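Review the following:
>
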Amino acid sequence: MTNDGRYFREAWIAGVTRHYPGEPKPGYIAPWEETPDWERACAAAVYGQVRDFVQVSAGNTAKLSREQKGRFVALCWTAQIHKHIEDPKPGYVADWDELPKWQQETDADIFEQIEQTV
């Protein structure tokens, strides 16, 4: 589980580094060891949800668009935020259309990276 979360976090950092306009906030690219426990739990859970989705789809997730893949990651993440934070900031639980483009692209990258490991 720790490795799943760590893999998710590394995919997040890679996506942020690739897509964030300018210099990302330090918390966005903090290494696994500096990531709060609740965020580690969220990362591991969402990794598992994506992995399971790819498996039960018998690899047919490859037919999904990048947007569909990113939306799946974002929705799973939002559910985890609600699980771990009683009254989250609106930006933490924003719907797909409200997310910045860099975050949408990062979420799609995360899905595709996990998809390749399954």
Q: What stands out?
A: Residues 2-117 form one domain. Residues 37-56 form the longest helix (20 residues). The mean pLDDT is 96. Helices lie at 2-19, 37-56, 66-84, 101-117.
